[in-house]
Amino acid sequence: MRTGEKVEVTIGALGHEGDGIAELGGVRLFVPWTLPGERWRVRLAEKVYGGFRALPLAPLAPLGARAMPLCRHFTRCGGCRLQHLPPDAYAAFKLARITTELARRRLEVAVLEPLVRSPPQSRRRLRLAFARQGAGVRLGLRRLHSHAIERLDECPVAHPELVALFAPLRRMLAEAGIARGEVLLTRAANGVDLALLTRLRPQPADFRRWQTFAEDQGLLRVSLGRGRAALPLALCEPPWVMAGDLPVPLPPGAFLQATEEGERALVDFLGEVIRDGERLVDLHAGLGLLSLPHRRRLARLLLVDIDPAAGEALRPVMALPENRHLAVATRDLERHPLTPEELAAFDLVLLDPPRAGARRQCEALAASPIRRVVYVACHPPSFARDARILADAGFRLVRLRPVDQFVFAADVELAALLVRD
Fold first, then answer.
1. pLDDT at 220
2. What is the widest separation between alpha-carbon atoms in the chain?
């Protein structure tokens, strides 16, 4: 078998990225946008995972039950890979992303809750790539397994306020003469924030141009870069987000859960676990949007994150008289996890690490007197690895809530409660 060869295959299952998997002569083929049981003529692409990626060319038999894709960019844009799955198969795939990893690590969950779904048009953060193309600019998402940009004219996943900016933003980027880069659009509580991620030495004309653009399009702010290093190009109104009933300033490019519905499901899960009067440490806290809504129920709350911009944004919140039991710390938890001795000052740990997980922090938790951990994860394999560390130290996986906030993508969020006696 070689790249470019055309073969006929039967799809046997869906892989963890949502591709159909076929076997031919003992070689695995990964075929996007296909379903188990279908027969396809495919063309072999690059070698991966000891097999081949393959592009579907034509079905060899009538296709069975499929969902009608909502977007004309489907199969070209790399952002959505599951629009063709029927609703039951879609939900089963999302759950299997979690249960397969638990089984691989010999973990059992006492209560697996139903999948919490986010609706279409709910995603509040979009990172788009752009590049000059002739006199204009191509703006959109990368194509599947490619650096090429699929120009987006619609997106059924994103909030309409973000989609409405595609055309004017394309025109603005062309006018600004920027060769390439990315833009991060975020729908805050009071409007849309834009971070421009590119190399640019802004001149006075650039500030005037972006300020006019922000005013015309109703943007809150335009920043060059993200975090503490961001340079404001335009400001109409400071953006903020809500932590329950508490407004929190939003630093440029700061992390947010993908959808408000997904965030609410995670906040509610934590609220069902917290006991009044507890001391909670929120690790990889970001802006504290999962724990701060419960601040009045806690005797103490410490928010820890690597991003100093998050800490700076939270300090005015901490200064409020009613929040004197709250504190914030900037710390690289990957290199310097909280020690067992530091953890002993708390009753409950909330852990929401990045995709790579929190292996070293879980090793410290295992050696600590902590007995209750809420783990929020966007990557089931790293969660299962870390949960195994805790399980080996006596923790039980008591309940798990799957949260589908990555609509039509292969990823799935989860919140889990681990307890030891």
1. 98
2. 69
The pair of structure tokens assigned to 267 is 């906040």
Q: Which residues are catalytic?
A: 378
**3-state secondary structure string across 205-219:** HHHHHHHHHHHHHCE
Same domain, 98 and 198: no
DSSP bridge pairs for 243: 246
Nearest to 378 by CA among 257, 242, 261, 291: 257
Any domain includes 248 = no
What does residue 357 show for φ and ψ, rounded to 5 degrees? 85, -165
Domain range for residue 317?
90-119+256-419
Give me the pLDDT at residue 116, please.
Answer: 98
- The span from the CA of 411 to the CA of 119, in Å, is 15
If asked whether residues 288 and 368 sit together in one domain, one would say: yes
10-residue mean pLDDT series, the chain (421 residues) = 92 94 94 96 91 95 92 92 95 97 98 97 97 94 93 95 97 93 97 95 94 98 94 97 96 96 98 98 98 98 96 92 95 97 98 97 98 98 98 98 96 98 92
58 in helix, strand or coil? strand
Q: Which residue has the tokens 């914030």?
A: 328
Check residue 287 and give its pLDDT: 97
Of 241, 269, 302, the last residue of a domain is 241
CA dist 48 and 71 (Å) reads 28
The percent of the chain in helix, strand and coil, each rounded to the nearest 5, is: 25, 35, 40
| CATH value at residue 17 | 2.40.50.140
Residue 165 sits in a domain of what CATH number?
2.40.50.1070
From residue 85, how far is each of 14, 20, 73, 269, 407 by CA, in Å?
11, 11, 16, 28, 12
Number of domains in the chain: 3
